[in-house]
Amino acid sequence: MTARVDRDDHGIPLLWADSADELAHLQGRNAATDRAWQIETDRWRGEGRLAERLGPDAVGWDRFARRARLDDTARRCHEKLDPEVRRWVDAYVAGVNDALPAGAEAAPEFGATGTTPGRWQPWSPLTVFLVNHILFGTFPNKLWRAHVAATLGPDAVDLFAVEGPAGAGSNAWVLPGDRTGSGAPVIAGDPHRLLELPGVYQQVRLACPEFDVIGLAFPGVPGLPHFGHAGPVAWAITNAMADYQDLYREELRREGGRLLVREVDGWLPATVHTESIEVRDGAPEEIELVETARGPVIDHDRGTGEALSLRTPARVLGELGFAALLPLLRATRVADVVAALRHWVEPVNSVLVADRTGAVHRLVAGRVPDRDDAGRRLPVPGRDPRYAWRGWSPLPAAPVTVPLVNANDRRVADVAELGVDFAPPHRARRIRALVAGGAEAAQIHTDTRLAAAVLRGLLTRLDFTDAGPARQLRDRLLAWDGRMAPESVEAGAFAAWRAALARRLADHPSLRPLQAPSAFDELFAPWTDPRVRIGLALDGLVAGLHRLGGDVGTVALAALAEVAEGAPPPSWGRRHLLHPVRVPVGAAVDPGPAALGEPVGLPGDTDCVLATASVPGVSDACWRGPVARYVWDLADRSASRWIVPFGASGRPGDPHFADQLRRWVAGELIPVPEPTTPVFQERLADRGRFDLIPLDPDRHLDVVYRWVTEPRARFWGMTGHSREQVAEIYHFLAGLDSHHAYLMRLDGTPVGIFQTYQPAKDPVGECYPVQPGDFGIHLFVAAPAGRPAPGFTGAVAGALHRYVFADPAVRRIVIEPDVRNEVALRRWRRLGYRFGAQVELAGKRAQLAFLPRDSVGG
Q: Among residues 268, 294, 253, 263, which one has the least CA distance to residue 379?
């Protein structure tokens, strides 16, 4: 086997190499090719060097990244890797560096911003992983609780106890073999994160003699840390919602040119140095980086004057969990995955793993410190030994024999003792009910029933003085089926009332103190913005506003009247629009919503299983949701399915930049890429590896339908056909022994269709005297990646001639192009075909032409 990259019809990379290290190198090359801008901006963010490329707006992030010592932590963790894993990670970095210049040249963002890629350090993959997960943890919620305690009092903190606004929840469930038709387990789910463009996950297949795994990769990180299917074993994660980060209040003072921090035994020197943040189109900013015995100082409480240090397992241990990545790829059974994840550190994950033998396991992977519970809720005094970390909490792991659901909920005997902030139980309950009812995975993924028991209960308690518009609206909402469907007018009206309720609560006298300026850095505004937190905590506030002296019924009535007396609210799909997050690069190359088919209305909502999040009272736009969906079938991996919101490519303008979006919105899944042995392959000089694989009418329909219905394909005869008609034609051909259809590929990318037939068993055989050894062909060339390629068709035709004439029984090739296709006629004549009679065939007048074996030296 030689190292190579194939791609399926959706551009998903299939990577093959002779060893794990060579495969890591190839995965790095692929990341730099497909996602150059994405992985470089993540590296710049981790190093705190984004502002020098993109300007003053990035200074706030750079300041935090440097204060939190993200890149330095990554370097420390890389140094502690064992030699084999370090060599594997280094091979990945070498692949990135080899391909990054060419990848950046093809990525328009670099030109638009006037930036160039740099060179990756051996620890850069760990930096990228850290930058994507540092805010996964709980410390920003502690800043919010500190703000609530300072403005409303400590007793009000629990009113806002929900998953944070930028949290990363997920759904995952497992069906043991006795609950599936095949007798083998099935794992399914969907991770919820910011809907970044390009997506945070890339579908990939990684194969070498040691292993063959499909899964979701982090561009910039080797392996498949979260979701993988190795054939005999598969695994998936959700956020365990464990509390593994602490904030400490630190007292600092300067004395004799030194910076001192107060400890239990007095004032001791802190570690301190200064760095300069270079700023494009702006003055550089000098910052002081301080680290205490607890951790790096990331912010200051402007109310108390205290510094805030952040303590994380990765910084304490000098380990991030990368030691688990290579063993995960090599896993063949549940016990292997469990053993691999003993090395995991952060973020802390709930894991479901199953294998083909029927074994199923649930575990929590990571490190959760054992310490005083007060540290889980608020920043605590650094000098007080009461709040020191005492070691690591034991984490649960157990076999499973019944269907199990993880949805970031508080689960007794699993994660309940590990954290404070959990998602409400609605998603988990709904999935359990659907699983118990025998629902298919696709039905569960796309379930839009909203859990709104608290808000509906509020509606039932409202008192009306008349039967006016407000009461009529209330009655409509109570009769509504609760599904957040895009076409639902009632869902839109409910959302309008909910938003009005959130806005009025934010301005209510009992909550107005929250509007006081935050004591913390504006970088943390998504967590400390009162309007955002109120919109996300409506259930708790509706149930508990009376504790602050407020009457929620009066607020709800006013909100209902506001909506009832205003213009009719639009349907949910006209309010709930996809709004992906993207690093700003300028209008010239920024695809924005318009390039995705603006507007893209979405089903679901924050508390649905289909958790397309919005913030009531702030915006109904969706910026967070399922960044992938998957179904891992342990009986037959080729029966597994998956989808991502956009596409495999990170380059705007690439055919696979957003080609999965339509299916993702519709709740559909696509097949995972399984190996298809080429019937023929050879290397075309200066062009790449050309091969033929059997055309699968189901797997290949998307690309084939797009090709054959384009105006340029008018002579192929299918321009007016529907998808169903095209599929029917190729299903019919697949059932014939005399006719065959193949997908032509160049370096794994589909570039056209090649069809063969026996003239004696085809209508053309009735139009001329068929000779022994006649062999008919049809050729449709789409050109590599849709781009014109001079001489490409001739090169392909030459390869196809060699393929056909490799069979000694074939004496001559027969073609019958449309006589109106003058370009094709000239091409066939140049290739040596001898023209015969013109004949009438169904739908066209055809030019018969023949290529004898002896004319090509055969």
A: 294
